Amino acid sequence: KALAQQPGSAAAWQRLGFVLRDLGRNEDAMDAFQMAIEHGNNLGTFILNRADQLLLNGRLDEATGALQSACKAKPFDYNLHRAYAGALRLKKDEAGAARQLRIASELAPDAITVWENLSKCLAAQGNWDEEKIASNRIYELESLYRPR
User: Which CATH superfamily is domain 1-58 in?
Assistant: First the structure.
């Protein structure tokens, strides 16, 4: 109904994408998320939903490419860099993921999950000096936000 009344509503396209995903209509969901991107001025949340759908459909290379392009177009969107790092980790590109997580940590320095993922990437690379810095930052943030 919402789309019939406002076919240019990015939010309505996004909601349709979620419904189609829940119904198992993955390709249709991806099309709906693409329409949300087009009507939503390439807003990061719409791009993330489409990339997530690509990942659910097993299209890792496409999702990674979409997130890479999105990070270039919107370099200050923390969530895009975080998601791109996740896709790179799925591709076993720990160095590339660490680069994206460093960017995300600069954009959102208090995001514990970014530091946790960065620590894992650095450990996987055997980069213990930088991993120690990331671990210290995690400890610092946890002591601020998760008092013991």
Answer: Tetratricopeptide repeat domain (1.25.40.10)
